[in-house]
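> Could you send the Acyl carrier protein prediction when you get a chance?

Sure thing. Input:
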Amino acid sequence: MSLTADDLIRFIRDELNVEDAMDAETELFSTGILDSVAMMNIIGFVEEKAGIEVRPADVTLENFDTAQRIVDYAREQA
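Output:
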């Protein structure tokens, strides 16, 4: 399966009940839109949707602060 920024934004809106305006480049964690509990949910979603295993050392703002960064990370791991 492939993961897109739209998939991730839809998940954040529908499953995490976030109504803030966001696009692929919106900073999710450094702005406080999402918290560490949301991060765990996103990691599970990414692992399932992209068919990868996210290593704890890879969970950084550099890899996970925007939907596009998450998608780019998942593609690099596939």
